[in-house]
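Exam revision sheet. Question 4 asks you to relate a sequence to its structure. Input first:
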Amino acid sequence: MLDATPPPPSKYRPVLSQAQAPLTLQTQVMDEQGEWRTQSLACERPLTIYLNKREILTLMTLGEDPEALVLGYLRNQGWIHALEEVIAIQVDWEVAAAAVVTQPLQVDLDERLSQRTVTTGCGQGTVFGNQMERLQQLQLAPWPLKQSEIYHLLDQLSQRNATYRQAGAVHGCALCQANGEVLAFCEDIGRHNAVDTLAGRLWLDDLPEQDLIFYTTGRLTSEMVIKAAQMQISVLISRSGATQMGLELAQRLGLLMLARAKGKHFLVYSGQERLLLDAKPQRLEVSAKKEHRHD
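Answer key, structure tokens:
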């Protein structure tokens, strides 16, 4: 479920629809005993983006916050560079389309559409243009983080994931601060959709963009690292794992990247020098006899 701070009244906002769709539906399933029960299913629906009447692509999404998803997607792809460039985003679920109207773009649509890479993100995320060139221009702040702050943040995040707890089949992503405050949280079918939605919320809700932590329940692939870095985020935490290219990019950009973060356990894949181990959990000593008995 989306969780974000309301924007200040003076902040510029484009004209936005409020087109949130139902997130779950009920179905009948049979369990291993042959008994029938009611089960929630996470919804999945297509959303085709039209930019100034030009069809861009179709995303498969939960539909939790489609306007922010579309805005964040265009931002992370480098199609728009400021919220003020966007005049309107109108989502209509009856035709499964999002119409985006902007000021004259600073990019060549034909060139960007010709440079399309299909990535391995859930639902086949797409990357347009040469994002690696833009990454070379990034300068991310290497601020330190305490182990105790990680544990506090994970505890705060354990109370989220409403759709996942009800129906499963979705990923959750969050923008957080080291003090444990969760600035925005959202869930979607694909983790790349969730991070794009957060990128949109950064602009729409005028959230602080300094010393942010990005959290995801999904894998830290190259696509996820790129999207987080484009939001000037230099700390990434995943409840799942990381890929080889995701790690290479994190190391190249100087990111602090943690994976397998659950409870008191985590693995630091890059940026180890930025983490202060101030709350090491007690190491469990298990005797050989006990290990043999539990085998």
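Marking note for examiners. Residues 145-276 form a domain with the Cytidine Deaminase; domain 2 fold (CATH 3.40.140.10).
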